[in-house]
Amino acid sequence: MAEAERIIGTPDTPDDSGEQPAAGASAGSGASAGSGASAPPGVSGAGERRAPADARGSRGRRIALLFAVAAFAYALDLISKTLVVAKLEGRAPIKLIGDWLELNAIRNPGAAFGFGAAFTVIFTLIAAAVIVVIMRLARKLYSYPWAIALGLLLGGALGNLTDRIFRSPGVFEGEVVDFIAPKGFAVFNLADSAIVCGGILIVLLSFRGLDPDGTVHKD
To answer: Could you give the residue numbers annotated as active site?
Structure first.
């Protein structure tokens, strides 16, 4: 009978004397101590295992925010340009605030706000390069403000790049649709506005010492 109890019984089941839990706890402590001393970082302790996953999840949320902002800015720009081409192009400007602000559809072969009309292809390549740089920065992104700023830049760059590729007179030489015309200022579009807002936010974040990876430095 004693032999049968020895085979069937489980060492983790406490007995009436209370000594078994103590022995189990001692063994567990020794195992824990041994594993903590020998296992590589990120493997032994529960906290160490969770840290990389938490970091990846945190970065994933910020990347998702970046692309959500970019998609929103791009969609607004694309919809607005589609409506302007269909309803406003070739017609008289529409006054919104007297002579101070009107909607006036034009085609712009240059950069934002009509600058550099002779360098359409160059500006197309620059826009493509900006998109590539933003995608690379996203791999080290741990800051919500930077996610918003880069999202605005990405959405604006994609909006104008779409015009460069798909509008006349040809691929990489397409003219951008501009329609927001303040008095005494260049005509622009929502993509230009997103690029400018993203750039201003990046400047402010740089002055505050906040990097895309979430670190804060003081000069």
So the answer is: 178, 192
